[in-house]
Design goal:
Elements: H1 3-19, E1 22-25, E2 32-35, E3 45-50, E4 53-58, E5 63-67, H2 70-80, E6 85-89, E7 93-96, E8 100-102, E9 106-110, E10 113-116, E11 125-127, E12 134-140, E13 143-146, E14 157-159, E15 162-168, E16 171-172, E17 178-182, E18 188-191, E19 194-195, E20 200-203, E21 212-214, E22 217-219, E23 227-229, E24 236-238, E25 241-243, E26 246-251, E27 254-257, E28 260-262, E29 269-273, E30 277-280, E31 283-285, E32 291-295, E33 299-304, E34 307-309, E35 316-318, E36 323-328, E37 331-333, E38 338-342, E39 347-352, E40 355-357, E41 361-366, E42 373-374, E43 376-379, E44 382-384, E45 388-393, E46 400-401, E47 404-406, E48 409-411, E49 416-420, E50 428-430, E51 433-434
Parallel strand pairs: 3-6, 6-9, 7-10, 8-11, 9-12, 10-13, 11-14, 12-15, 13-16, 14-17, 15-18, 16-19, 17-20, 18-21, 19-22, 20-23, 21-24, 22-25, 23-26, 24-27, 25-28, 26-29, 27-30, 28-31, 29-32, 30-33, 31-34, 33-36, 34-37, 35-38, 36-39, 37-40, 38-41, 39-43, 40-44, 41-45, 42-46, 43-47, 44-48, 45-49, ...
Antiparallel strand pairs: 1-2, 3-4, 4-5
Length: 435
């Protein structure tokens, strides 16, 4: 055996040992067979790195590629993986300069770190093309990072033409534009992920359906922008922790439940959402420069069982003609402005069983439209220690009509309990306890 061959064998033996593989040299053959450890069984290809050399091992244990280019190694494994197959990227750092293109249904698992060094608006992994739809794509366990100088790269995982996807257990140190972005798709899930500073953490498909985002942590400390989940059709967001960011921006046709949103001084809002949205059991704190929740021109909205603590402005702000809104069993403490503020021509609003305290106005209905507003039910709330309890201010000659204000406890509101432009002939105001 010559010196060059011996050196290659030694490198492969060292790399295999470090990566957790069993090694055997085939008799009377130039091939080096590497038997995967138990963690790697079942993968069509395994990519690993040692001393700056990137290796690709086949399922049969044969090294099929050795290169100094991480892109080449991973792309080779992806291209040669069979449809519905899987590759494993082992521990190590993989500098991505060209981008990984996926054009088939497959899985990429591993514990390696992929670093996007591609430049402005360039993505780490791209799934599908304008002519090739990928039916299913899966990523598990990988770590992502990026180089942000001199330009900001694009997304870590960009799925413009992927119908179904599972992103599980990834750790994103930071990314450029978006960590995970969908364009179209349905039955897509992002679970158990950590997403660090980025412009937008997850951007669901506008045309999508059956999206699930669950058990994720979004930590945007140090990020210039601050939106965890962008404007898309995410159907279910549950049990997520949002730190130093806006939870959602334009969420619609969806349910958000059991989430904790710590805005931490951002000039932003905890949750922004549109029509057909349900927000259940969420806590919003730290909105020292913003608003707790803001439905934007929304209809068919349910907000229930939520707690909003010390926003700089309003706890909940309904505006732009929001209709068919239910706010129940919520606690709003110490907003800088109003507990629940209703501006614009909003109708068919239920506010029930809420606790509102230390606000300028507990509930305010204020706008400049030349029209009456109607169909409010404000009942069974505790509204105490505010400036005003319930305050209505409409243009001259216009009133709140055909509404019900009953069974509320209004206590210690220094400027008045029920004040303003209310038509007592068409409204029911009864059985309120004013102290």
């Amino acid at each position: 055996m010559n010196t060059r061959a011996a050196l290659i064998i030694a490198l492969l033996l060292a790399a295999s040992f470090l990566a957790g593989y069993h090694v055997a040299i085939a008799a009377q053959s130039p091939k080096v067979l590497i038997e995967p450890g138990s963690f790697a069984e079942g993968y069509d290809y395994i990519v690993f790195v040692h001393n700056g050399i990137y290796y690709v091992k086949s399922q049969e244990g044969e090294i099929v590629l050795a290169t100094t280019d991480a892109d080449e190694a991973i792309q080779y494994a992806v291209d040669n993986c069979p449809e519905w197959g899987a590759i494993y990227i082992a521990e190590g750092t993989y500098m991505i300069d060209s981008g990984i293109i996926v054009e088939k249904s497959m899985c990429i698992h591993g514990c390696g770190t992929l670093i996007n060094a591609r430049g402005e608006n360039q993505d780490t992994i791209i799934v599908g093309t304008s002519t090739i739809w990928v039916d299913y794509f899966e990523v598990k366990g990988l770590k992502f990072d990026c180089i942000t100088e001199p330009t900001i790269p694009g997304d870590h995982i960009w799925m413009p033409y992927c119908r179904r996807a599972l992103i599980e257990g990834i750790y994103s140190v930071k990314s450029g534009e978006e960590c995970i972005s969908f364009y179209r798709g349905y039955e897509c899930r992002v679970v158990n992920c950590y997403i660090g500073p980025v412009m937008t953490g997850i951007n669901p498909a506008l045309e999508g359906r059956n999206f699930v985002i669950a058990n994720c942590i979004f930590n945007f400390t140090g990020a210039a922008s601050a939106t965890a989940i962008g404007n898309g059709a995410a159907r279910s967001i549950t049990n997520c922790y949002f730190f130093n960011c806006c939870g959602t921006n334009g969420l619609q046709n969806a349910i958000m439940s059991s989430c904790y949103i710590d805005v931490k001084g951002r000039l932003t809002t905890g949750v922004v959402f549109g029509s057909n949205a349900t927000i259940v059991g969420c806590t919003i704190v730290g909105a020292e420069h913003g608003i707790g929740m803001r439905p934007e021109g929304a209809s068919n909205v349910i907000i229930t069982g939520c707690m909003i603590l010390q926003p700089l402005k309003h706890g909940i702000w309904l505006r732009y003609n929001a209709t068919h809104v239910s706010i129940t069993d919520c606690t709003i403490i110490d907003p800088g402005w109003d507990g629940i503020a209703i501006t614009g021509f909003c109708e068919d609003v239920l506010i029930q069983s809420c606790y509102i305290t230390q606000a300028s106005k507990g509930i305010s209905i204020i706008y400049d439209y030349q029209a009456n507003t109607s169909s409010y039910i404000i009942t069974d709330n505790i509204i105490k220690s505010n400036g005003y309890g319930i305050y209505v201010d409409l243009p001259s000659g216009y009133y709140l009509v055909n509404s019900i204000i009953t069974e509320n406890v209004l206590a210690d509101n220094s400027s008045g309990n029920i004040v303003g432009d209310i038509d007592t002939a068409t409204c029911v105001i009864a059985n309120n306890k004013e102290v």
